[in-house]
Amino acid sequence: MADPVTFAPDRGAYIRTNTWLAAVAMAGAMIVLWLIGNPYPWTGAPAGLAAIGLRAWYLASEELVATWEMTDTALTGPGPRKVALTHIEAVNTMGSFVQIVTKNGDKHLIKYQANPAATKAAIERAMA
Fold this sequence. Notes:
Number of domains: 2
Number of helices: 3
Mean pLDDT: 95
Strand content: 15-25%
Distance between the termini: 16 Å
Keywords: Membrane, Transmembrane, Transmembrane helix
Organism: Ruegeria profundi
Protein name: PH domain-containing protein
């Protein structure tokens, strides 16, 4: 049996993902305020930034330790997540995330990967 492969979250990917999320939240909040006729739609920008910034700070201690491990036969993630490689239907990338879709329709995310394409390729090689 080969040594397990570990897919650990990357702090840089975490920051980049939350930066994009903050930009979308800032724009969205400004648009909503403008649409409802608020005379100060610019206040949506700091509100969106504060909301996502606080969320990112609060969740960092959980998200940055959520490591997945792959053996010859299975992917094991945080909590009770375990997926046999033979039960994987598809492997997709979404930004810095890699999505595992099982033949039963269950979906799991390997989050904040520095190189999601490399993570996807490693899983697909192990499945072959």
